[in-house]
Structure formats: C-alpha cells, structure tokens
Amino acid sequence: MQPRSGIALVAHDSCKQDMVDWARFNRRTLSAHRLYATGTTGGRLIDEVGLSVTRLRSGPHGGDQQIGSRIAEGDVDLLIFFWDPLTAQPHEPDVRALLRLAVLSNIPVACNRATADFVISSPLLTGRDPWTPELVPA
C-alpha cells in the first residue's frame, strides 16, 4: 500500500459506537490517511473523533455503493466495516455487493475490532517492508 492509503470506514447502527471508540484509539494512524465513510458513521467520526473524513451518503441510501465505486476506482485500499451479523439490514444486497467487490479487488477487509487492530497496525499499511532487518526480531 502507499504511505497514504485510502481507508473506508462503515458501521451498522449497532456497531457505530464501537467504530467511534476504535477510531479514537487509532486516531493518530487514521489521520495520516485519506478517509471515506458512510453518512452517519462519517458524521460521528468527524464530530466525536475530530478526523477529516470524506462523508458519503448513508449506507441504505447509496453510501455502500459509493464506497464500492471508490474501491473499483482504486481510491480505497482498506475497508473497515463493522457490520452486525445478527440484524437483518434493509440494504443487505448492497452490503453483500460491497464485500464482494472488496474481495474481488484484493483489498483487506476488517469486519470486527480485532481484525481492524491487526490491519491498522501492520507495517504494510504504510508501505514498509515487514521483512526488513529492523522489523525482524534478532
């Protein structure tokens, strides 16, 4: 990935607070990248975390498709999508299409906080080679 990656941040309603908490913890790292988010999630990240975010429509009103478009255009290198697997979503086809496009585009997708923590802390996010001597334990 480039030193300044495009990161898309999406969260279903029941996961928005978790996204805000995660983004607050990772604010410094996130602020070094281009951020895109769906409507309400983006608003909360701007208001509560102070991040600079390109805010798109809400997911059910086309925001998932807008994120997908940015993935297809090569503007998004990483998708952090905290989705609720226990609640049916009215825009489920859009959610599935977004996840399918991310997989087909071979970009990392984190669907929960544990995976997001691994991805955001990876040296690959900043373009550093993880196998350089200074990163490999002696």
From TrEMBL:
One of its GO terms (molecular function) is methylglyoxal synthase activity. Residues 1-138 form the MGS-like domain. SUPFAM superfamilies: Methylglyoxal synthase-like (SSF52335). Its EC number is 4.2.3.3. SMART domains: MGS. One of its GO terms (biological process) is methylglyoxal biosynthetic process. It catalyses: dihydroxyacetone phosphate = methylglyoxal + phosphate. Pfam families: MGS. CDD domains: MGS (cd01422). The active site is at D64 (proton donor/acceptor). Substrate binds at H12, K16, T38, G39, T40, T41, S58, G59, H91. GO terms for cellular component: cytosol. InterPro entries: Methylgl_synth, MGS-like_dom, MGS-like_dom_sf. It comes from the Bacteria. Keywords: Lyase. Catalyzes the formation of methylglyoxal from dihydroxyacetone phosphate. Belongs to the methylglyoxal synthase family. This is Methylglyoxal synthase.
